[in-house]
Amino acid sequence: MSSGLEHADRDLAAELESPAAGQVGIPVDAICTGCGQIRVKRATLKTVRESSTTTDPTELEVPDLTSFKHVCHRCQTATWWNPVAVLSGLLEREGGE
Ligand SMILES: [Zn+2]
Known about the structure:
- The protein is α+β, with helices and mostly antiparallel strands.
- It has one domain (about 10-95).
- Helix content is about 10%, strand content about 30%.
- The protein has helices spanning about 10-15, 90-95, and strands spanning about 25-30, 40-45, 70, 75-85.
- A four-stranded antiparallel beta sheet has the order 2-1-4-3.
- It is globular.
- The termini are far apart.
- The protein binds zinc ion.
- Zinc ion (ZN) binds near residues 72 and 74.
């Protein structure tokens, strides 16, 4: 049985392109506080801490981000997600300036 820890064979770019990831924001790997699954989500700039020394998305790191609310399809409701990684590689792939 799957434990929900699906690190292998993940296609992060495909997850980001999924509507479930959201429309705008910084690509992050985040963990759902409800069910514990990790998915790619877009975190808006609202999730950047005021204490952060940068607002450049390519320079952001996990400590710069707060938890954010996002729909979890497994929980079937909006839940809190904790960022676990900033996917700056995907960000650069999109050609953000
Ligand atoms: Zn969930």
